[in-house]
Amino acid sequence: MEIFLQQLVNGLVVGSVYALVALGYTMVYGILGLINFAHGDLVMVGALTALQTMMFLMGVAPGMSPVAMLTLSLLVAIPVCMLLGFTMERLAYRRLRNAPRLAPLITAIGVSFLLQTLAMIIWGRNYHTFPQLISTTPVQPIEGVFVTPIQITIVIASAIIMAALILLVTKTKLGRAMRATAENHRVAALMGVDTNMIIALTFVIGAALAAIAGVMYASNYGIAHYGMGFMPGLKAFTAAVLGGIGNLGGAMLGGVVLGLVESFGAGYIEQMTFGFLNSSYQDIFAFIILGLVLIFKPTGLLGERVSDRA
Amino acid sequence: MKKTVVALAIMGFGLSAAQAQEMVVKLGSVAPLTGTISHLGKDNENGAKLAVEDANAKGITIGGKKVKFELMGEDDQADPRTGTTVAQRLVDASVKGVIGHLNSGTTIPASRIYNQAGVPMISPSATNPTLTRQGYKGVFRTIANDVQQGGVLGKFIAGPLAAKTVAIIDDRTSYGQGLADETEKAVKAAGGKIVAREFTNDKATDFNAILTKIRGAKPDVIFFGGMDAQAGPMLRQLKQLGVDTKFVTGDGGCSPEMIKLAGEAIGENAYCSMAGLPLEKMPGGTEFRNRYKARFNMDVQIYSPYAYDAAMAMIKAMQAANSVEPAKYLPELKKSNFQGVTGTVAFDDIGDIKDGAVTMYQFKGGSWAAM
Fold first, then answer.
1. Contact yes or no for B172 and A11 at CB 8 A
2. A153 — contact with chain B (CB < 8 Å)?
3. What was the pLDDT predicted at A307?
4. Which residues constitute the domain of residue B69?
């Protein structure tokens, strides 16, 4: 039983990070129909910028409290990623807004390579140790189930951020403008919505989420390097499709479901297939689930409800 | 007139006699002399150089001629493509044998070129089993390969660590998988039981799911076949899952980088293996260290004793065959059996060193300590 609960914890933690990153994919897709493949690399830039800030702070103020240091590094990493998200949209994607759909997609892959290579030049090829400022000493809320404070922080912070984003999209004027742009940006423009600004803001908000996800991811595992955004990016994209791309609630659900499927898949696939498959099929298992969902429900778990995509 | 002819004839005869007295034999040495592991590359070259100088000082005669060995040192930058370029350069310069290369990744493609040209090569440091399994006749190495390493790891886990139950993880690379498979075989042969066999990949950072499963199997030892970039975070996650089982890994995790990446999660229950012996445990190690230091004014890094023995094996084979021609001395090289700096140098059928040494290390006081 405690193994089952432990896998549940593992899945929830990974799933929360996936969900947070998936929101960025789904927001951009909802509004532009573009899959921004460079989004995963914003996760990496967020983590490495935060690392750089922490190194600097440790140098100038070694006595600083961990919480203050983490907050300050987030306050640097988030704006850097926001600026990067804005620049990406302005320089690479805006010009291609009316181009065939393949052009922005390939551009996005190019931007992803660009970011990774730049990060490699700036921070080198080596793995860096990321200071674990939130404790990683496990506690046992239930006998045999180990949870660390950083993991609790990740799950709670993700939930709060996701709730805030939903409120932003459904309750505010900005959110209404985003939904209007998503539905039809020409009509929205006629109604007096500055669609260029709204689209740019969507990228900026997504980038901020990616920065937070990056710092949480690196804090949890204690390492960071220039290629670290690729896998979570790919998984988050899968989560977004699983939940129904373009749908905020779907991205969250997809993220958590994917995290759980991976965790339970790796844990139980051998028993379930009587030793025929093993944990090297961990990723395949996740993609089989994705395939099945898409066969029976091509719009993903929560469908693409056009009216409130954003 | 006649006198001049005779004089010329005598001069000519004298000249050719002088030529007959000394013959220059070129040997190649290849290793990365620039880049991040250039210190190891220079070390290999120095080892071979010392052997060549020793042979020259002894004044060896082969086929009735006094031989002067010359070492041609080349830089392969640890890059497979550069490796083949310099291999071709050595072949074109008609070297009689090559000591190198350093990395498995450069040695394997280069070995094809040496094989085509019929030039024997001995690597002092490439451990990938593939190198000697390509069916090439003139390929040897003086260091233990990963199969031998896996054997030692398995015996270590079942023996000194007294593990009855073992969990094995590998990263699905040819190195990690190969090492894990060999370790598994050896553990089983020694009577140990494999209670979990899990897999990850060389880009993964999250191992919680498989580690949780392993925790449920309660093994005495966890073995990981893979690199430090995964092994470090893996140790951290084990600690976060409340597991303090003994952790063993191969040479991919036997690095200072591993210690850095594992941070506070590494302790005295972490072990790793490296091909080769520490210098002080080699039969001729202490003497070699002193002579090396006196000659090059620096310390032995890792593989120079293996490079020394490799060059010596080649020279001894030439003496035994009484010829410097590869086709003639190759059979003698296969039959090599002498006491070198690192121990007994003898090769098996495919060119691997017999009974290649592997050393186990334990994490102690902030670094890896030889056991």
1. no
2. no
3. 45
4. 2-144+281-346
Phi, psi angle pair for A271, to nearest 5°: -65, -40
Answer yes or no: do B163 and B139 share one domain: no
Rounded CA-CA distance A303/A178 in Å is 19
| One domain for residues B138 and B285 | yes
Same domain as B336, residue B205: no
CB contacts, 8 Å: A227 with chain B: 203
The answer to whether residues B329 and B195 belong to one domain is no
User: Does residue B171 share a domain with residue B271?
Assistant: yes
Q: What is the pLDDT along chain A (310 residues), one digit of tens a residue?
A: 889 999 999 999 999 999 999 999 999 998 988 899 999 999 999 999 999 999 999 999 888 899 999 999 999 999 999 999 999 999 999 999 889 989 999 999 999 999 999 998 999 877 899 999 998 899 999 888 999 999 999 999 999 999 999 999 999 999 999 999 998 889 999 999 999 999 999 999 999 999 999 999 999 999 999 989 998 999 999 999 999 888 899 999 999 999 999 999 888 887 877 777 788 787 777 788 888 888 888 888 887 654 444 4
The whole-angstrom separation of Cα B246 and Cα A295 is: 45
Query: What H or E segment, with its residue span, contains residue B29?
Result: strand B22-31
Q: Mean pLDDT score of chain B, rounded to an integer? A: 90
Distance from CA of B361 to the nearest CA of A (A): 23
Contact A279 B200 (CB under 8 A): yes
Contact A129 B210 (CB under 8 A): no
Instruction: Give per-residue burial for A128-156: e unless 16+ CB within 10 Å, then b.
Output: bbbbbbbebeeeeeeeebbbbebbebbbe
Task: Report the top-level CATH class of A2-308.
Answer: mainly alpha
**Ramachandran category for residue B101: left, alpha or beta (phi over 0 → left; psi -120 to 50 → alpha):** beta
Q: In terms of domains, do B232 and B288 share one?
A: no
Inter-chain touch B241–A231, beta carbons under 8 Å: no
pTM for this entry: 0.80
Domain range summary for chain A, segments of one domain joined by +:
2-308
Of B209, B232, B260, the CB nearest to A7: B209
Task: Enumerate residues 6+ apart whose C-beta is below 8 A from A263.
Answer: A7, A8, A10, A11, A14, B208, B209, B212
Q: Do A136 and B239 touch (CB under 8 A)?
A: yes
State how far the Cα of A101 lies from the Cα of A98, in Å rounded to an integer: 8
Domains: count for chain B: 2
Q: Are B206 and B314 in the same domain?
A: no
Say whether both B154 and B261 belong to one domain: yes
Q: Does A271 touch chain B (CB under 8 A)?
A: no
Whether residue B369 lies inside any domain: the answer is no
CATH of the domain at B233: 3.40.50.2300
Question: Nearest CB to A223: which of B197, B203, B232?
Answer: B232
The three-class DSSP label of residue B114 is helix
User: What ipTM goes with this model?
Assistant: 0.89
Q: Do the domain assignments include residue B48? A: yes
pLDDT of residue B183: 94
